[in-house]
Specification:
alpha/beta, about 40% helix
Length: about 300
């Protein structure tokens, strides 16, 4: 579907220009699931930027089976932050790799949000999932400025909630279509493995505190916008610190590509054995994607989002 998206986008623009009436959801068999966001819904697993292993692929199979969906459009782009979702050429990360002028992968639109609006104009989308924000935070990964994280979180919240922001534009393009977002797991818990024993408790406390604070902010922001949030951090047991190897570390090794169990010991992963040193991958493993999809399905059912 990705390789065909430029053609699809052009067709949708032509559809809009000639003034054809949008197809009503009730008139379409099944309906479309539209996935938006960053590398997690794109299915990134190093070194592949896109795979069919994403939670979005797994979730579509569940939607198809349980709710009659018959179409899946995945516009998620690795490395997109909230600036780039709004404007593909904009943002401190240097611009989207999928959208806008000079994009590495040409998805045929100026931004991910513009591409989404074209798909929503078809009128048969029944569900939108949104995974965005991690790459906003990554802007602070090398910063020593203590105000960096509050600043980028404030920018992310503004990009979501302003009158011409992400949520408002999605709702304008598709009134009444449910949007379901998610919070984030904490891949850096894997580095507990290589932390000296005398510092492991402090490391663990710092990681779980950071995760709790960031995800509380994410939840509060989406709550103000009336968007339900899937608790992926909870599904990955991010707060569970029990065990000689803490449970949250064990779960990160199971549900991400950061680390793994080798001959009874947990070690950092190495997806390129030909390169010196382990190359850890923050992205979910196949098991992790299934766990995220399971959490989405659970919330959708609990809140009757599609009934």
């Amino acid at each position: 579907m990705r390789s065909r998206f430029a053609l699809l986008f052009g067709a949708l623009l032509a559809f809009a220009v000639i003034g054809a009436a949008p197809v009503a959801a009730d008139d379409a068999a099944g309906g479309t699931y539209l996935a938006l966001g960053d590398s997690v819904p794109a299915g990134t697993q190093q070194p592949a930027p896109f795979t069919d292993n994403a939670y979005t692929n797994v979730l579509f199979e569940k939607l198809e089976r349980n709710y009659g969906f018959d179409n899946f459009v995945n516009l998620a782009c690795p490395a997109d932050d909230s600036n780039e979702m709004l404007d593909g050429d904009n943002g401190p990360n240097g611009g989207s790799i999928c959208y806008g002028e000079g994009a590495l992968f040409d998805f045929g639109a100026a931004s991910q949000l513009e591409a989404a609006e074209a798909v929503l104009a078809q009128g048969d989308v029944r569900l939108i999932t949104l995974t965005i924000g991690a790459n906003d935070l990554f802007l602070c990964s090398d910063s020593v400025n203590p105000d960096c994280i509050p600043q980028v979180l404030g920018q992310w919240a503004n990009n979501l909630g302003r009158p011409d922001g992400i949520i408002a534009r999605l709702r304008t393009a598709a009134p009444g279509v449910p949007i379901v977002a998610m919070n984030y797991y904490t891949p850096d818990l894997a580095f507990w493995i290589t932390t000296p024993a005398e510092f492991q408790d402090d490391f663990l406390a710092g990681q779980t505190e950071f995760s709790a604070g960031g995800n509380a902010f994410i939840g509060a922001t989406y709550a103000q916008l009336g968007v339900p949030v899937v608790d992926v951090a909870g599904a990955f047991d991010t707060a569970a610190t029990n065990g000689s190897t803490p449970k949250n570390v064990r779960q990160v090794c199971k549900f991400t590509l950061m680390c793994e169990k080798d001959r009874g010991d947990y070690v950092l992963s190495d997806y390129d054995p030909g390169t010196p040193g382990p190359q850890t991958d923050i992205h979910p493993s196949n098991a992790g994607h299934k766990q995220i999809a399971k959490a989405f399905k659970k919330l959708i059912k609990q809140q009757d989002i599609l009934d």
